[in-house]
Write a structure and sequence with these properties.
The protein has 429 residues and is an alpha/beta fold. It has helices spanning 16-24, 76-88, 107-120, 132-140, 153-173, 183-197, 204-213, 246-250, 285-293, 312-322, 361-364, 392-405; strands spanning 2-8, 29-32, 41-45, 48-52, 65-68, 73-74, 96-99, 103-104, 201-202, 217-221, 261-267, 270-272, 306-308, 310-311, 326-330, 340-349, 352-354, 368-375, 409-413, 421-423. The protein is built from twelve helices and 20 strands. Helix 3 (107-120) runs parallel beside helix 5.
């Protein structure tokens, strides 16, 4: 039996999609366990770029089955669009399953998300405006609709009618908007979605439990990152789901005891999208250089990402919270040619050195980073395939990171393409 979890060890956008695709051919099943179309996973393979929001990053491997599990919130219109895109490109293998217990993201969720961000104005969270937060809010207030409800037209109609009536009242009275939801139009649209998706819908738990009993190799793919977890991230500037390893259990029916490997994914620097504290943020030429070289613009929104040095204090926190057994280090090549590379090793607060901190946004914003500086490398490491090809300056940096975080770095991403990934055998031998 082998259950592996891939989890972000920063504020998302770490390159989890690439790592998932790289490993997926060795697994029977790939499970996406939380989030929705607010996620953006990019896979570049054989010279072709694929951008996914909902589909698991293992979907391009016909040898593995991919499941959107019950911990997710699913915009069915967006999902169908992604499926049709792959069909048109000739890379659709009918290897998708959709958990019946996943909650639906509906047009009123998206509209309320937009209206709420506008209402908050300067204090907005900075969501993707994809309706994710409102959909999760309905899930926990028990007013949501499930993927499985699409297969029960009478039940769907009855529930949807009452919900749309309430949402329209909310939109009109609270947000003072005239953008009402048309019940009949939405209901007919959902029936069309049901016809399209019916062959893919299954009950998640029996499928997952059967796979575990049959000792199939299972890979769980998370969205966002540990520092965006709704409970353990930099609240309130977080996502609406559990983006830690625990989310893999909550969203799939896998027991914590069945997880044998947890791969944390971190960039060689740090990025963040939207509002919230960012102790190592660079607002200078180096920060802009990293943004341009790393093409640091959101896959989902296109927004420029804030860029800064690697923060080992927060990385250690994320590794501990998610129980990572190893680290995949990505976008190393973006640092090529930078004379001095810095990493944050601790913080200064009220004249004291702090190495373990609270990650609430208001607390973290009061800490000043303390840096260790490393000499950069001059030549490009893009395309490196073995440790012997890596410059000494890079090896000194990774040795320091490994000692600081307490787990080995086992995978290196040295370029955008899936083929530009190598196993870091130095820490496996």
């Amino acid at each position: 039996m082998s259950v592996t979890v891939i989890v972000g060890a920063q504020w998302g956008d770490e390159g989890k999609g690439k790592i998932t695709h790289f490993l997926a051919s060795d697994y029977d099943i790939v499970l996406r366990f939380q989030g929705g179309s607010n996620a953006g996973h990019t896979v570049i393979t054989k010279g072709k770029k694929y951008k996914f929001n909902l589909l698991p990053s293992g979907i391009l491997h016909d040898s593995c089955t991919c499941l959107l599990s019950d911990g997710m919130v699913v915009d069915t219109a967006h999902l169908i669009e992604e499926i049709n895109t792959l069909k048109s490109e000739g890379v659709w293998f009918e290897n998708l399953l959709l958990g019946s217990g996943a909650n639906l993201v509906l047009p009123y969720h998206t509209l309320i998300d937009e209206l709420e961000e506008e209402r908050l104005a300067g204090e907005a969270i900075g969501t993707t405006r994809r309706g994710i937060g409102p959909a999760y809010a309905d899930k926990y207030s028990r007013t949501g609709l499930l993927v499985g409800d699409l297969l029960k037209p009478d039940y769907l109609k009855k529930r949807l009618m009452g919900i749309v009536e309430y949402k329209n009242e909310l939109i009109r009275c609270v947000y003072h908007s005239s953008k009402a939801i048309d019940f009949s139009q939405l209901y007919e649209e959902l029936l069309t979605h049901a016809d399209f998706l019916k062959p893919y819908i299954i009950d998640t738990v029996p499928f997952v439990r059967s796979a575990i009993k049959e000792e199939k190799a299972v890979l769980c793919e998370g969205a966002q990152g540990t520092l965006l977890d709704v409970d353990y991230g930099t609240y309130p500037y977080v996502t609406s789901s559990h983006s830690t390893t625990a989310g893999a259990c909550l969203g799939t029916g896998i027991s914590p005891l069945e997880i044998s490997r947890v791969i944390g994914v971190s960039k060689a620097y740090t990025t963040r999208v939207g509002q919230g504290c960012f102790p190592t943020e660079l607002k200078d030429e180096i920060g802009e250089q990293i943004r341009q070289r790393g093409r640091e613009y959101g896959t989902t929104t296109g927004r420029p990402r804030r860029c800064g040095w690697l923060d080992l204090v927060l990385l250690r926190y994320a590794i501990e919270i998610s129980g990572c057994t190893e680290l995949a280090l990505t976008k190393i090549d973006v640092l090529d040619g930078i004379d001095e590379i810095k990493v944050c090793v601790a913080y200064k607060h009220n004249g004291k050195i702090v190495e373990n901190i609270s990650v609430s946004d208001i607390e973290l914003s009061n800490y000043e980073p303390i840096y260790q500086t490393f000499k950069g490398w001059k030549h490009s490491i893009s395309g490196v395939q073995s440790v012997n090809e890596l410059p000494d300056e890079f090896l000194r940096l990774t040795d320091f990171i490994t000692q600081s975080i307490g787990i080995p770095i086992t995978l290196l991403s040295v370029g955008e393409a899936s083929e530009q990934t190598c196993v870091f055998r130095k820490y496996l031998e």
